[in-house]
Design brief:
The protein is an alpha/beta fold. It has 2 domains: 107 residues, Spore Coat Polysaccharide Biosynthesis Protein SpsA, Chain A; 104 residues, Spore Coat Polysaccharide Biosynthesis Protein SpsA, Chain A (Alpha-Beta Complex), CATH 3.90.550. Helix content is 33%, strand content 24%. The chain is built from 9 helices and 11 strands. It has a 5-stranded mixed barrel. Strands 2-3 form a two-stranded antiparallel ribbon. The longest helix has 15 residues.
């Protein structure tokens, strides 16, 4: 693998969302949501941004907005597999040594989150990097839909560390209720070889039990570093989320 210090950002998009069908094309401030996510990713300035999709409607919407779309196999099992397939089409010679997977339902994502994930990966030797935010909210801590990262921190300031585990349970436990847990943010930066290795692995037992793909990497002995950020981006999974995202996007433009 070439060591070029070049970063590629890929956003997976698929129309078949169970709770919000057609999600990539949902209108956010006069443009499809996938275009808004692309715009936020471009603001990071880290490298080229591509949409990895499997529907021509998404491809056309991205290209009408001046973006770049890569068509991938609609039968790929996950967004990560779609990222890997797109990276291999875009860059068959491996000139880009880092690939960042930005979720396609984060229309108000702070570009600094993307920058932070890349910086954490390049600063260390981990295979993968991701992000987390501290929370003391009892509702979030108890909610199995809020994934928690269990982190061994590198520094007393708890700004970055090594992921020991990810779980839907409340973890790590403490009798001190003032201590936070770490709400995982599903944005990943991969070393190129690590992305290929990950996608070649079969689903692991803990991954299947917790329904958390990143556990496949940990069970296989791959390393994940976690950078802490100050706020979690709001994802869009339901019609209610979409309305909140529209209001949040409008506030960003004010």
């Amino acid at each position: 693998m070439k060591q070029t210090n070049k970063t590629l950002i890929i956003i997976p998009a698929r129309m078949a969302s169970t709770r919000l069908p057609g999600k990539p094309l949902a209108n956010i401030g006069g443009a499809p949501m996938i275009v808004r996510v692309m715009e936020r990713a471009l603001l990071s300035g880290l490298g080229p941004v591509y949409i990895a999709c499997s529907e021509s409607d998404v491809e056309r919407a991205v290209e009408r907005a001046g973006g770049r779309a890569i068509m991938t196999d609609p039968d790929l099992p996950s967004g990560t597999d779609r990222i890997r397939a797109a990276a291999d089409i875009i860059d068959p010679d491996g000139d880009y040594d880092v690939v960042i997977n930005v979720q396609g339902d984060l229309p108000t994502l702070d570009p600094e989150c993307i920058i932070r994930a890349e910086a954490i990966l390049r600063a260390g030797h981990a295979d993968i990097s991701t992000l987390a935010v501290a929370t003391q909210d009892p509702r979030e801590i108890a909610d199995p839909n809020v994934v928690k990262a269990v982190i061994s921190f590198h520094d007393a300031g708890q700004s970055a560390g090594r992921a020991l585990y990810f779980t839907r349970a409340s973890s790590p436990w403490s009798e001190d209720t003032n201590k936070p847990v770490w709400h995982h943010i599903g944005l990943y930066a991969y070393r190129r070889a690590a992305l290929s290795r990950f996608c070649d692995l079969p689903p692991s037992p803990l991954e299947l039990r917790e329904r958390l793909e990143q556990l496949r990497a940990l069970e296989a002995g791959m390393s994940i570093d976690v950078g802490v950020v100050s706020a979690s981006p709001e994802g869009v999974d339901t019609p209610e989320d979409l309305e909140r995202a529209r209001l949040a996007y409008k506030a960003l433009q004010a």
